[in-house]
From TrEMBL:
Name of the protein in question: ChrR Cupin-like domain protein
Lineage: superkingdom: Bacteria
Lineage: Bacteria, Pseudomonadati, Pseudomonadota, Alphaproteobacteria, Sphingomonadales
Residue span, ChrR-like cupin domain: 8-107, 120-223
Record keywords, A-Z: Plasmid
SUPFAM superfamilies found in the cross-reference section: RmlC-like cupins
């Protein structure tokens, strides 16, 4: 069973739940038949994790605030890492506390095991932005990206995506798009208009393959972290029909049955997370 379509929630509306070790979690999306999931994880000051076992799944992390130490490597805000399954790495500590976005992989994912996938640790602030390969149909957003990870065997890409302010075209209508792979994103800064409403800082979506979405425009600019599970390259398939620009669209989230009602509240003045 795959993860359901969520488009989009403001994660500020998701309640924290406390683990026995004092860590707080917000579970944003998950596959009920595996360990595949996306979470916001808040580490308390003085947190020290125990040793990881071979039976724990691989995970990616992105530091939203605070600082952590991962395998004796200090990681400040916007640091990114990938810890494969079965390599004994991934010991985490935080002296002053930190908030992480965590992408947890499935236990049965062969592309996330140590014999196939390499560990990664990146200070993303030191990476250059790449503006070379974006689709002309997205030119109004003036995009740039930083590729953080390419999974083995075309298993998925993780990257930062940014767009400049005033990303609104002269046209009043644009095509929609689909992808043959999943797509997932968390809004780090800024805002973007979608047919489902205005995505603010903390907005999150998960799209299964072949979900029609867009068009998207941004008056303020934005920065988000994205993943494309199932493909190392985002492949855009464009519609022939055009849809109006969504500026001013009312919040109309798509969420699976049983989603708590409080998750689907509009958010006019968003706190940080």
């Amino acid at each position: 069973m795959a993860r359901p379509h969520i488009e989009f929630i403001q994660t500020q509306n998701v309640d924290w739940r406390e683990r026995p070790d004092g860590v707080l979690e917000k579970l944003l999306s998950y596959d009920p038949l595996s360990t595949d999931a996306t979470l916001i994880v808040r580490l308390p000051p003085g947190f020290v994790s125990g040793p990881r076992t071979a039976g724990e799944p691989a995970f990616e992390y992105f530091v939203l605030d605070g600082s952590v130490t991962v395998d004796e490597l200090p990681c400040a805000r916007h640091a990114y890492g990938f810890i494969p399954q079965g390599n004994g790495l991934g010991a985490v500590s935080s002296q002053d506390g930190a908030t992480l976005l965590v992408f947890r992989h499935a236990l049965d994912d062969p592309n996330a095991h140590a014999e196939c996938a390499d560990a990664i640790a990146i200070d993303t602030a030191r990476m250059p932005w790449d503006t070379s390969t974006y689709d002309p149909k997205l030119g109004h957003l003036r995009l740039a990206r930083k590729v953080l990870r390419l999974g083995p065997n075309d298993s998925g890409r993780t990257f930062l995506l940014t767009g400049l302010p005033h990303g609104v075209p002269d046209e009043t209508h644009l095509p929609t798009e689909t992808h043959h792979h999943c797509e997932e994103a968390f809004m780090l800064q800024g805002e973007m208009w979608a047919p489902e409403g205005r995505m603010r800082q903390g907005a999150y979506f998960f799209r299964p393959p072949n979900i029609v979405h867009g068009p998207h425009v941004s008056e303020t600019g934005f920065l988000q972290i994205m993943r494309s599970p199932g493909s190392n390259r985002v492949v855009n398939q464009w519609s022939d029909d055009l849809k109006p620009l969504p500026i001013g669209a009312a919040y109309a989230p798509v969420a699976p049955e049983g989603t708590p009602a409080e998750w689907l509240r509009p958010l006019d003045n968003a706190p940080v997370y």
